[in-house]
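Section: protein folds

Sequence with per-residue tokens
===
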Amino acid sequence: VQLVESGGGSVQVGGSLRLSCVASGYTASRYCMGWFRQAPGKEREGVAAIDSVGNTDYAESVKGRFTISQDKGKNILYLEMNDLKPEDTAMYYCAADLAYWGRGTQVTVS
């Protein structure tokens, strides 16, 4: 399984970004996929998750602002992030079943 994130960048407060995670080497419908983030000096935290039937879950801090989705046909996981805040600044990672991880994409909000 390989996961490759993209879409990060620098954005102003209140702005939006869409992260993508392209997966290969696995069947999307069999895994629970999630987005995690880690800010400097802080522990990695879960941001959003989606299971094999499309149920979603979000951290309280991002509810109403972030949306997780996936295109199973293309094996791509997305994270739509709106109304970004400085505290959203972190390296964002996608994961499959907490067993496979990408290398991350940096999001900076200022």
